[in-house]
Amino acid sequence: MPKRPFPGSAALVALLFVPAVALADPPGSVALDRAADRLHASVEVGDAIAACPADLWRTRLTLWHRVFGAGDGWTVEGCRLRFGDCAGDCLDASDGSACLHMARIFEKDEERRYVMPAREAYALACASGDPSGCTNRGAGIRNVPLDEDALSLRSGEEMAPCLMRSFAIACAAGDAWGCAMERQAHRLGEDGPVDAGTARERLTRACVLSSEKGSEGTEAAPCRFARGQMGRLSGKE
Predict the structure, then answer these.
(1) 19-52, pLDDT tens digit by residue?
(2) Would you tell me how many other CB atoms lie within 10 Å of the CB of residue 66?
(3) What b-and-e string marks burial along 221-234, b requiring 16 or more CB atoms within 10 Å of the CB?
(4) Rounded to two decimals, what is the model's pTM?
(5) What is the DSSP string of 172-186?
(6) Residues β-bridged to residue 139
């Protein structure tokens, strides 16, 4: 089965899952390069990027995080303003929110010099208990092949079970985009026959989770994306 990206997938992977936050001047290239070098040099990161996101989920949590929760200590703006500290919390303290927002800042680079570091940071976010990290890592594998990312070069048929599990885990953990992506996989019949009932359930959950976060701007995008496929699903029934 070939990969079946949705329309405009390359742009959507980089932008759809990122809240519409207007960043001021990003961290300098020295700071970004330093963080990227640390990611590339890490054996832990190498293992994470080679693993299915579903198998990474929460494997990096410290005892503190397991007892008190992974937390939402960092925002994308806070990470931008204190990028060195944010990167340190991701790499040294297993902070999922730090890894997630570090990845998003890498993706803001207009010259797209940090595509692979962003994927590596998303993998660490997933391992550190942030479900959005699992969704974004899975979306990169599924939709945008990259020479440095071996999983993204595998066939859609080979990766379908991994990605279905990854999106399902993210959805169950409360990530609206995970529900939207899982819904799409069920609608397309990836990793099995078309499952209209589960697809509709994931649509509902994507919309509920979106409304819990706010109904304006990109916060409602998971619901809009999932709902936009309803006609396509009906055509398969």
Answers:
(1) 444 444 558 899 999 999 999 999 999 999 999 9
(2) 11
(3) bbbebbbebeeebe
(4) 0.81
(5) HTT-HHHHHHHHHHH
(6) none
